[in-house]
Design goal:
It is a single chain. By secondary structure, the chain is of the alpha+beta class. About 15% of the residues lie in helices and about 25% in strands. Strands 3, 4, 8, 10, 11, 12, 14 and 16 form an eight-stranded mixed β-sheet that branches. Strands 7-15-9-13 form a four-stranded antiparallel β-sheet, with no helix packed on it. Helix 2 links the parallel strand 11 and strand 12. Helix 3 crosses helix 4.
């Protein structure tokens, strides 16, 4: 009987693993049903929303607020040709305006649409612009951040992140034509990083050349190259990456943000010195910003909704909050914990369990060779469920039919009657499940937990 029961549970586990497609790394299911001797029950897993274009959910803020061109109207010259000055910006004329929203509109339009700053008319005073992207939600980056400039790429720029909704900031990466001169930092590239230095903040000169601006328009913050340090080329070993995200201190936080800030410190000036007679050649213009990621739900939700101008996780595992960061009321039987990517492929859900306000069973199964150290509450839908038609009340106790009694309705009331359950006046014709069967159920649950950890 024991072997047959264990084999049944192992078959269920194999079916659970096979349920996942080849791309198991998506962790797209929070739970599914499996068969046990007691019938259908839930198997819980770590889960997370699919990655998406996060620019459709952000709010953009510019500092200074009047830095966008067009008020008053202005004529601009081309960077590569100071005598070609036929580009107009007028905030009051739709086809000549360049508002911030054009950093996030559909690409591929002709002519190209873009946001544009005022020109560098106050040279040599620095032309400084802060562009802040806010989600009012914690998100996890899953792909490179890409900025596309129509003005020539800045000669000095800093990308910053916030994890506390803009209250504090820390640098993500520095960009300059000369890192030593601009930031007193040795120039590096992401290819110079290792697994041990991945969290280092670097300055790169790869994206700050302004002279060939017609051909090199993008500035990147390389997320995938950093992933590849653990997952290998083409990210073929995502199991390794997910394991590192679980076990390496601060690694998951490195790819987590609530806000991004783009600090533009010096515009592209071309191959020569600044032409003070044609300062309308120098400005910032951005046609596209790409930020791909997912809502951070602490591996307790597989969907995230945008409602009333705000993102929020649709929490499972008895969790709640914008990031599923706490247990629901009446489900605080143990401290809240984030889900875990391990063991692969389905992770560990770490579900919130009901408050410990009812009797606790500490099963002793040493006679079966298994020591179950976990405490199990009555009818909590995981280990011990009401039997013989009993109904679970508040995850605390079983309400039993008239013919049965006991903690799990496992005893026939006729056992206490004269002649026992086999007497002519007994209330039941069949014996109730034995305590040994209950112990086998507990053993099966322990085996299921052990198999999930393999």
């Amino acid at each position: 009987m024991r072997f047959h029961f264990a084999l049944t549970l192992w078959t269920s586990v194999c079916q659970a693993v096979q349920h996942y497609p080849a791309a198991w790394g998506h962790y797209d299911l929070c739970k599914f049903q499996i068969y046990t001797e007691e019938g259908l029950t839930w198997d819980y897993m770590a889960c997370q929303p699919e990655a998406a274009d996060m620019t459709q959910y952000l709010k953009v803020t510019l500092d200074p607020p009047n830095i966008t061109c067009g008020d008053p109207p202005e004529t601009y010259c081309a960077l590569e040709n100071p005598y070609m000055c036929n580009n107009e910006c007028d905030a009051n004329t739709e086809e000549l305006a360049h508002p911030p929203k054009l950093m996030f509109d559909i690409e591929g339009r002709n002519p190209t649409t873009f946001w544009q700053s005022t020109s560098w008319q106050k040279y040599p005073k620095a032309l400084l612009v802060n562009i802040t992207l806010s989600w009012n939600k914690t998100i996890e980056l899953t792909d490179d951040i890409v900025l596309t400039f129509e003005s020539g790429r800045p000669e000095q720029m800093v990308l910053e992140k916030s994890l506390d909704y803009g209250r504090t900031w820390q640098p993500y990466q520095f960009y300059a034509t000369d890192c030593l001169d601009a930031f007193t930092m040795e120039p590096k590239t992401v290819q110079d990083l290792t697994q041990h230095t991945l969290l280092d903040i670097i300055c790169t000169e790869d994206y700050s050349r302004g002279y060939v601006w017609k051909y090199d328009k993008t500035v990147r913050f390389e997320i995938k190259d950093r992933f590849a340090l653990f997952a290998g080329p083409r990210l073929h070993n995502m199991a390794s990456l997910y394991g590192q995200l679980d076990t390496t201190k601060n690694l998951r936080d490195f790819f987590t943000i609530t806000d991004l800030r783009i600090r533009l410190l010096r515009p592209a000036t071309g191959a020569t010195m600044v032409d003070e007679d044609k300062l309308t050649r120098y400005f910032y213009a951005i046609s596209d910003i790409k930020v791909h990621g997912r809502c951070k739900c602490n591996l307790h939700a597989n969907s995230c909704v945008f409602d009333k101008e705000k993102l929020g996780c649709e929490c499972e595992h008895n969790t709640t909050g914008p990031d599923c960061g706490r247990c629901k009321k009446s489900y605080q039987g143990r401290a809240w914990s984030s889900g875990s990517y391990l063991p692969i492929p389905k992770g560990t859900a770490n579900i919130c369990i009901p408050n410990n306000i009812g009797p606790v069973i500490r099963p002793n199964v040493s006679s079966l060779g298994v020591a179950n150290r976990k405490e199990a509450r009555v009818c909590d839908n995981e280990l011990l469920r009401c039997q013989n038609g009993g109904v679970c009340v508040n995850n605390v106790r079983c309400s039993c039919p008239s013919d049965y009694s006991g903690l799990l309705c496992e005893k026939s009331r006729c056992e206490a009657e004269l002649g026992g359950c086999r007497g002519p006046d007994s209330g039941a014709a069949l014996p109730a499940p034995s305590l040994r069967l209950l112990l086998l159920l507990l053993l099966g649950s322990a085996l299921l937990g052990g198999a999930s950890a393999l």
